[in-house]
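Fig. S4 source data, part A: sequence.
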Amino acid sequence: MSEVEQDNTREERIKMEVMVDAYDEQERAMGWYYYLEDRLSFPFPAKWISRNRPNARKVTVLKMSSEDDCSNNMFVEVLYREGELEDVFLAQLSDIQPLDPDSTTEEAIGDWHYWFERGYKF
């Protein structure tokens, strides 16, 4: 059982805006993909906190990754800079903490984090 307490407002929004008319795993994944793509205001600054890298890295979230990349999990493309060097990486959206997001971006990422942390699957 999940340690994240059920949030009925989020549950209803996810049901009516993300999962509406989604009958299988692929449709649920694409429901999430388009919900997030429509609501995230790209680009935005964020912290990238990964299990593999315990220290948060400041990044710029550029866009959603491709639909194909997001068939099993939601990924975003992030720009990471270190000194003169910069590179673009794929990051799981569940590892992204936006810095000072607009309300729509904050709500959408919060919805994904909630769904992911509750242990729900496509």
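Fig. S4 source data, part B ends here. Helices lie at 8-18, 25-39, 103-117.
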